[in-house]
Amino acid sequence: MMATLGPHAGFILVAYIATAIVIVGLIGWIARDYAVQRRILGDLESRGIKRRSQREDQA
Fold it and tell me: Phi and psi for 55 in degrees, rounded to 5?
């Protein structure tokens, strides 16, 4: 396989691996932040604080 990528095979493979690590890291970060935001929102709603889109007193 290395021969088919030419003389820069090492660089190409490292670049692909680094890119995959960054993408997986970003996906993990987004998933964790989503869970944190949902928990914060649930806490606020349990205390009676609602989102503007859920308020009944809007005209």
Answer: -70, 140
